[in-house]
Structure formats: structure tokens, C-alpha cells
Amino acid sequence: MPALDDMAESRLEALDKQGLWRMPITTSPLEGMWVERGGRKLLSFSSNDYLGLSRQPDVLAAAQIALHLYGAGAGASRYVTGENPLYAELEQQLCGMKQTEATCVFSSGYMATLGGVCALMGKGDLILADKLCHACMVDAAQLSGAKFIRFAHNDMQHLEQLLTKHREQYQHCLILSETVFSMDGDCAPLEAISELAKAHDAWVLSDDAHGLGVVESYPVDIQIGTLSKAAGSLGGYVCASRAVIDLIKNTARNAIYTTALPPATLAASLAALRIMVAQSDLGAKALGYAQQFSHAVGLADAQSAIVPLIIGEAEAALQASQTLAEAGYLVSAIRPPTVPQGTARLRFTFSALHTEEEVDALITEVRRHGWH
Ligand SMILES: Cc1ncc(COP(=O)(O)O)c(C=O)c1O
User: Fold this and answer.
1) Is 85 exposed, middle or buried (0-12, 13-18, 19+ CB in 10 A)?
2) Is 196 in the pocket of ligand 1 (CB under 6 A)?
3) In the chain, % of residues over pLDDT 90
4) Into which CATH architecture does domain 27-45+280-369 fall?
5) Which of 61, 201, 283, 348 has the maximum number of C-beta atoms within 10 A of its C-beta?
6) Burial class (CB in 10 A: 0-12, 13-18, 19+), 281
7) Helix (H) or strand (E) holding 308
């Protein structure tokens, strides 16, 4: 099929020319936040394992027990024979943490967003989303068939203007935002968004993917998140009222027509969430490191465990990442289309597994380069 290959190759060439060729980075974990990559030992400031729970001994033990008890895979969807008691326990745990009546666990955060939004919204409805919302929310909004409009990042005046102009022409309206924005690390004004929503008869959905375990989230109508970051495992969740979750469980195609999560994954998530609740100092530690770093490097005060350092062009961000790798640090360059053109960046993430000395050493290294 030469024509097919020609098409693929010419599009890849275009991506390469723009510095947008993506290569998965293979790393093997070592102790703490150290990893091995390409035969070199690097200290990672790029993982979303904010609390260091992905290899926590109690989490591993819980996964191991479930693996032997239930097997490696679930064998079918939740609605056939894939359901096991761990689902109910995990959903109950999330209800407690998010203070909601009910929860639906999905196979990832991406899937939770697609499933939740598409089950609730459709043709004739309106979705308003923050301009910096994650790709899964953009995809969900488009897939739902609702009218989709984006408002300027965290701009309540713009959101109000859009609500005033468009709300009445649609049956239902859902506002999408993130508790902590994944590439910028700042928080959404969820209380103000909820007030506007109430005034305009709209609902609010917030993605807590990067807030869970680190930053307290404001309770909006629909709370979505992932178990792949601070919970160190895999899976996604939608927490809301009993009626909303029952509707999602009965209509979300990507919850119904897909195999249930591996039991060991559910058990790991459950164990990690219990540790997260019992040891709130872990999140505080990750946040504290991010604040220490942002302050020392002269960046805006960190509001979460994520600190962006905007470089500009994609090639320059890749070069900065390479420079840090040569100094022994793994810090990924984030490029368009993940972030807007001209804002390619280094994205630093901090974990409870880092040490004070490691953060100090990173600060010294970053300050040497005058990147901002
Ligand atoms: C804000 C945000 N939402 C959702 C997701 C998707 O979560 P998952 O990796 O569990 O699919 C991510 C990242 O992966 C994210 O950064």
C-alpha cells in the first residue's frame, strides 16, 4: 500500500520539521524518584506520581493479593462477569473522599471524561470549557454533539458573557474546567464558576486529575479524576449524585462495551487512596517542594505540584530538557499541540519522594541557565 505509506511518511516529515516528532521515553524506576534511562541514572522531575504511591509496599501487597485471588484480567465487562467486590469498595472510598452519593469507575481518566460528558450532554445542549482544558475534555465535548465554545483561561468575565449570550438557546448547559491545570499547575476559580453556573441554570464539571491528594478541590456538580497520578495506579472516576451516576452507568458506552479493569489495578488504587487519606502530609510535601522551587527560581508561586517554565519554541524547550538531562535530571519538554504555539515549556513536577537536598540541587542547576 504505497499510497498509504506515502501519506503517513509525508505527514510525519511535517511533524518532524516542526520539532513535534514524539518519542516514548523508556525509563526503569530506581530508588526514590531516580530512574535509569539509556544507561544513565537521572533524577526525575517529570512523574505524576506525586505521592510516590505507585511502588509503596502496602499498595504492591494489595495488588499482589488481588492478582492471585481474581487473576490477571477481569475476563469481561462489568455488566457481564468482570465485576468483583473491589469495584464497590473503590467507588465507596471515592464517594467518601469526594463527599458524593455515588461514583462510577472507568478504565482511565480519559475514559471517565468521555463517558461522563457524553452520557449527560447531547445535541441541543451547550458546553463551555476553559481554553486550557485537557484534550480529553475537548474530545468529550466534540463527541457529545453539544454546541462547544471555549472561554479564556480562568476568565470569569468571558464565561459570564458567553453564558449571557448563548445559554438561553440551549436546553442544558455544562461548564468544564480543571481543579489544577495539567500543563500550567494553576487552579480554577471553581467557587466563582459554580456561582455563575447557578445564576445561569448551568452545571459544572471539574477534572481533578492533578489535584487529588495534593490540593483540596471545591465540590462542583460532577467531579472527575484519574487514579493514574497521585494514586499511582490506573483508572478514572466520576463522582456525583446517585441519579447522575446511575444514568452514566446505564448509558456510557465506554463503561458498558469494554472489559473491566484488572483486579490488581483496582486493589492498588484502593490501597493508595486509603494511604492518601491517612497521610495527608504526603501531598503537603509535594506542594511544599513545588513552592520552594518556584520561589527560588523566580516563577509565579506554585499552586500545585506542577511548575511550568515557559521557554517558547519547541526546539528550544527540547534543548533545555537535553541540557538538564546532561546535568542528571529528567524534565520533559512539553510542546504544541499539548500547549499553545510559542509556549513550549519545561514542566517540573514534585513528589513526596523527592528530598530537600534534591530540590535544592535542581534549583541551583536551573538558576545557572537563566531560562526565564
Ligand atoms: C487533566 C487531565 N485529565 C485527564 C487525564 C487522563 O487521565 P488518564 O491518564 O487516567 O487517562 C490527564 C492525563 O493523563 C490529565 O492531565
Assistant:
1) exposed
2) no
3) 94
4) Alpha-Beta Complex (3.90)
5) 348
6) exposed
7) strand 306-312
Q: Which CATH class is domain 57-278?
A: alpha beta
Instruction: Assign 1 a pLDDT band (cuts: 50, 70, 90).
Output: low
With beta carbons less than 8 A apart as the criterion, state whether 304 and 187 touch.
yes
Burial code (b: 16+ CB inside 10 Å, e: under 16) for 36-67 equals eeeeeebbbbbbbbbbbbbebeebbebbeebb
Question: Of these residues, 178, 184, 186, 358, which one is catalytic?
Answer: 178
- C-beta contacts of 89-93 below 8 A and 24+ residues apart: 89/270, 90/235, 90/266, 90/269, 90/270, 90/273, 91/237, 93/270, 93/273, 93/274
Q: Which of 134, 200, 249, 285 is catalytic?
A: 134
Could you tell me if the CB of 115 is within 6 A of ligand 1? no
Q: How confident is the model at residue 36 (pLDDT cuts 50, 70, 90)?
A: very high
Ligand 1 pocket residue status of 110, Cβ below 6 Å: yes
Interstrand relation of 126-130 and 173-178 (parallel, antiparallel or unpaired): parallel
- 229 catalytically annotated: yes
Q: Is the CB of 207 under 6 A from ligand 1?
A: yes
pLDDT at 153 over 90: yes
pTM of the predicted protein model = 0.96
What is the whole-number distance in angstroms between the Cα of residue 53 and the centre of ligand 1? 17
Q: Is 294 an active-site residue?
A: no
Domain ranges of the chain: 27-45+280-369, 57-278
Query: In the structure, what pLDDT confidence band is assigned to residue 24 with cuts at 50, 70 and 90?
Result: confident
**3-state secondary structure (DSSP) of residue 204:** strand
Check for a shared fold between 27-45+280-369 and 57-278.
Answer: no
CA of 303 relative to ligand 1 center, distance in Å:
18
pLDDT digits (tens, 9 = 90+) for 358-367: 999 999 999 9
134 is catalytic: yes
108 close to ligand 1 (CB < 6 Angstrom) = yes
Cβ of 107 less than 6 Å from ligand 1: no
Q: What pLDDT shows up at residue 359? A: 98
Give the whole-angstrom CA distance, residue 137 versus residue 124.
18
Is 182 annotated as catalytic? yes
